[in-house]
Amino acid sequence: MIIIKNDEELDLMRQAGRVAAKIKHAMADMVTPGITTKELDMFARDMMREMGAKSAFKGYRGFPAYTCISVNEVVVHGIPDGRRIMKGDIVSIDVGVHYDGFVGDNATTVMVGVDDPEIVRLVQVAEQALEEGIAKAVAGGRLTDICHAVESVVVANGYSVVRDFVGHGLGRQMHEDPQIPNYGPPGKGPKLKRGMTLAIEPMVNMGMAGVQLLDDGWTVVTSDRLPSVHVEHSVAVMDGHAEILTVLDNG
Ligand code: MG
Fold this sequence. Notes:
Blueprint: H1 7-30, H2 37-51, E1 54-55, E2 68-71, E3 74-76, E4 90-99, E5 102-111, H3 117-135, H4 143-156, E6 160-161, E7 167-169, E8 176-180, E9 197-200, E10 203-205, E11 211-213, E12 220-222, E13 228-230, E14 233-237, E15 242-244
Antiparallel strand pairs: 1-4, 2-4, 3-12, 4-5, 6-10, 7-8, 7-9, 9-14, 10-13, 11-12, 14-15
The protein binds magnesium ion.
């Protein structure tokens, strides 16, 4: 069942989204050659405490860190550790928080002095896919309009969408109905209604769509070890437009 949020709940979702966005942006600003992913995660832990937020990931099915940091061939769910960021890396930062009873969830992929134009293009295509997916989160449409919009951008540019992981509804919980694949035909699934809140999150691979789970039980890598980009926003379905909740200035 897809939970519709009333106006008061949407305001709380905006707050949670704003907190998640602030932490994500602050972490992205800190990404520089030499810093470890663990240091970035500790920064996020401290910032969550200061803001009165709680990581939505830490302890979730035993996940050991406050954020997910996924470098290069890591698709999602990278566990922050002693890995040092190097020039030429792409670093996906995924921040989910509980704040005042609601969840905000967002991710960005930061390029660290990337010279390779193909990697720059991969990041741009993922961002465009997210944007076009979000544009379909409008009351009166259908859920898979979002899925199809994301896939269309990716496929038209010669890349692959990951099929093993999907976006999701969110609200008081990090994962609510519906699941939101990054692929599929348009015009199917539940009708979108004002007050539905969705985490839309394309995972775009430069090479093949296949992924593997590493032995740590969390880290998802591309099967061909080519780079992958992950970007995400929490979005509210509104009448006539989609509202991005995970922004710095939503009230
Ligand atoms: Mg998510």
